[in-house]
Amino acid sequence: MQRPKRKNPVLRTRLPTLPPAARSRAALGLTAAAALGRFELQQCRDCGMVQYPPREACQKCLSIRLDWKPQPAGGELLAQTVLHHSNDLFFRERLPWRLGLVKLDCGPTLVSHLHTEIEDPPSRVHIKAMLDRAGQAVIAALPEKEGSDMADDRQLREFTCDPKQRKVLVTDGKTALGQALVKEIVSAKAELVWVGYAEPWKKFAGFDELEKIPQVTLVPLDVTDSKNVRELAAEIAGKVDIVVNNAEFHRTAGISSRQGVETARAEMDVNYFGLLRLAQEFGPAMRSRGADGRASAVAWINVLSIYALANFPPHGTFSASKAAAHSLAQCLRAEMRPAGVRVVNVFPGPIDDEWNQLLPPPKVAPPALAKAVVGALRDGIEDVYPGDVAQEWLARWRDNPKALERELSA
Ligand SMILES: [Zn+2]
User: Quick check: helix, strand or coil at residue 227?
Assistant: First the structure.
């Protein structure tokens, strides 16, 4: 893959276009699963039929008892075509475009985007449900055997936010998680990583190691300081392709275990207002670069917490600040979507850091969390729940939020 060309500031900036985003309500089930990186289709509870496209009733027995169930991803490519013309603005700018008809092992036949490395039909393919730039699920067919440069595929890159050859800002390089993120992003071949650090007069553990990485540029960044955020944005917002906001303030406290509101305010100032400041300063510049071809802005990642879904009383005020940040992130997602910039929310369970020392395992190790973040960028996922604790909370929260609330407060 060649490096993207530099943008010519004299030429007209292309406005972002999105792929067709209209879906029926039934079809949103596919999107909900794809947002989590799953491939699910409707399956009839009465006759077991797997069907596609999604409908209100079973096409075989007309039962309305349809469940979204994970399906095997194998299939056979039956036919293919290459589009050289399209009336759709999004695809017109991206022609030629390869499409194919895939017969899934689980039954249905569907139209799918085809990776370049897939051989001519008949051939075996691996199906993936991915979110497109409009945030809706589409079906991509990939080769069964993963090649090393598979992510470089031009069509696939329209659906993913792979850090390769992109410029990334990590907002806090002081924490173990921040440093793990930087290393993971660098090993994913990012071109440049700006790493923010608050209180530049204090040297932090791991500083020298970060400084030695050639792709890394350390920048003073305190997300509680509006002026600082604005100045940094003025300098780099026009170049950042991916923002990873991992700046966090975390103390263990409920309501009655601490006097006053200082700690809670500090948590809100970093976890909630910090995100708001970054979004206000970096958001507009990134939105304006949503259509710069291969060099466009693609993703915004928020490291939230599984406590954003339901309050964990021993970390009560922290949970509240993350719930606020989650709500704001949903607003940011809606605002970034028209430009095709994906907002990825990460909901880890307790991270193995100094503020969770007294919690028993399982805890998410920072390198594992960093891997999950980069994996989400590569796979076109929108919501990430890394680790066993987060997965279990999510399952219980979906099953019955009230029961989870009661359980956590016990
Ligand atoms: Zn049926």
Answer: helix
Give the distance (Å) from ligand 1 centre to CA of residue 101. Answer: 24
Cα–Cα distances in angstroms (integers) from residue 110 to residues 53, 83, 145, in the given order? 8, 17, 21
SS3 state at 175: coil
Q: What is the pLDDT of residues 36-92, one digit of tens each?
A: 889 999 999 999 999 999 999 999 999 999 999 999 999 999 999 999 999 988 888
Centroid of ligand 1 to alpha carbon of 85 (angstroms) = 38
| Span from the CA of 110 to the centroid of ligand 1 (angstroms) | 19
Query: What is the number of helices (H) and of strands (E) in the chain?
Result: 12, 15
Strand intervals (E) in 40-135: 40-44, 50-51, 66-70, 74-83, 97-104, 109-114, 123-131
- Distances in Å between the Cα of 265 and the Cα atoms of 30, 181, 194, 262, 304 are 39, 27, 27, 5, 17
Residues in contact with 296: Cβ distance below 8 Å, sequence separation at least 6, in sequence order:
241, 289, 290, 340
Reply yes or no: is the peptide bond before residue 360 cis, omega within 30 of 0: no
Helix or strand (DSSP H, E) at 393: helix 388-399
At position 223, the amino acid (one-letter code) is V
Question: Could you write out the DSSP letters of every residue in 251-308?
Answer: ----STTS-SSHHHHHHIIIIIHHHHHHHHHHHHHHHHTTTSGGG---EEEEE--GGG
Sign of the C-alpha dihedral, residues 263, 264, 269, 274?
A: positive
* Interval between CA 24 and ligand 1 midpoint (Å): 20
Report pLDDT digits (tens) over 219-243.
Answer: 999 999 999 999 999 999 999 999 9
Distance separating alpha carbons of residues 309 and 320, to the nearest angstrom: 9
